[in-house]
Write a structure and sequence with these properties.
Length: 326
């Protein structure tokens, strides 16, 4: 005798609904989720168990319906409007943190070195803040901004006596070096803004995981993008937290967010490559030429175009080699 399928709504929040399904049968019938009488999506339960499904709710009251095997169940949920940052506030906070790092924390180093160290510290602090807030399920724009302002204040208090406005710049920039800077920065902004490269096979997974971090306000241990229901997440990269943190700070998403991270990653990579090449004895012009040749190598050119995660990792690797040579 065929057992009747049973399903219950266990839990619901702003971003997902949890269902417990028993005896779904072998007919491969879809379970459909409707929000305010509009289809959100359908999934296909194949075995008894818990299913966590992502949902997109509107601000205010939402009526959620689940239809499966001829049975419909309803639940209501009120979604409050949360604080959302903007690009002006986000850039101001990033610029303030960078200024504290370069003028106070690393002020005793040369111009190029303290710029590299400040970029590295900025990247690390953004990623670390996102990671910590994710662990305690408090990854929101308000919390992220408050933590960043606290970090800025603490660093200023600890290193306030190290203030030094600038060091004498001992090198001139040639036309070739200007061309190299335009190549790196221009490819980040123009290529990113006018193409959907963040949807590529190489980057779509990373960007989606960052979005889910924000939606869940914390670390995601289940991957909802599965035709047969959710499954355990593959792995968790520090890039997810960096990406989510910059998005929360600036309010940017999609191509705008990806272009900004590409810009930061390329500057970080280029600066670290430059100080490492100078450290091993190359002249300024030869170091710039080596960076250009490095960018044209087979695996790096792909990273320069669309893979900020690997570019940041290479930048940290170059900086690590630099410190080994100190």
């Amino acid at each position: 005798k065929k057992e009747k399928a049973i399903f219950e709504i266990q839990d619901i929040n702003e971003n997902s609904i949890t269902l417990n399904i028993t005896n779904p049968g072998k007919d491969f019938k879809p379970a459909t989720i409707l929000i305010n009488n509009k289809k959100d999506h359908a999934f296909y339960p194949i075995k008894s168990g818990k299913y966590i499904e992502k949902i997109k709710l509107s601000q205010g009251n939402n009526e959620i319906k689940i239809q499966f095997n001829g049975v419909e169940k309803k639940i209501s949920f009120f979604k409050e409007k949360g604080f959302q940052s903007n690009i002006v506030l986000g850039f101001a906070i990033i610029a303030l943190l960078f200024a504290v790092l370069i003028l106070f924390v690393f002020s005793k180093h040369s111009v190029i070195e303290k710029t590299c160290f400040s970029f590295a510290a900025l990247t690390g602090l953004l990623g670390l803040t996102g990671f910590i807030l994710s662990l305690i399920k408090q990854l929101t724009a308000t919390n992220f901004i408050l933590i960043m302002l606290t970090i800025i204040l603490v660093l200023f208090i600890l290193f306030r006596k190290n203030f030094k406005l600038t060091n004498k710049i001992s090198f001139k920039i040639s036309n070739f070096e200007i061309l190299l800077i335009i190549l790196i920065l221009g490819s980040a902004l123009l290529f990113g803004l006018f193409s959907n490269n963040y949807f590529s096979l190489w980057t779509n997974y990373y960007e989606r995981q960052s979005v889910e971090l924000i939606q869940n306000q914390g670390m995601q241990f289940n991957d909802s993008l599965s035709f047969l229901g959710s499954k355990p997440a593959g792995y968790i990269s520090q890039y997810f937290f960096l990406d989510a943190g910059i998005s929360l700070l600036t309010g940017l998403t999609g191509n705008g967010l990806f272009s900004l991270i590409q810009l930061l990653a390329k500057v970080f990579f280029g600066l670290n490559a430059f100080i490492l090449l100078k450290k091993i004895g190359l002249s300024q012009q030869k170091a710039c030429l080596a960076i250009l040749l490095f960018c044209l190598s087979g695996f790096v050119i792909g990273y320069l175009l669309f893979n900020a995660r690997h570019l940041i990792a290479i930048g940290f690797s170059l900086l690590g080699i630099f410190f080994l040579l100190v």
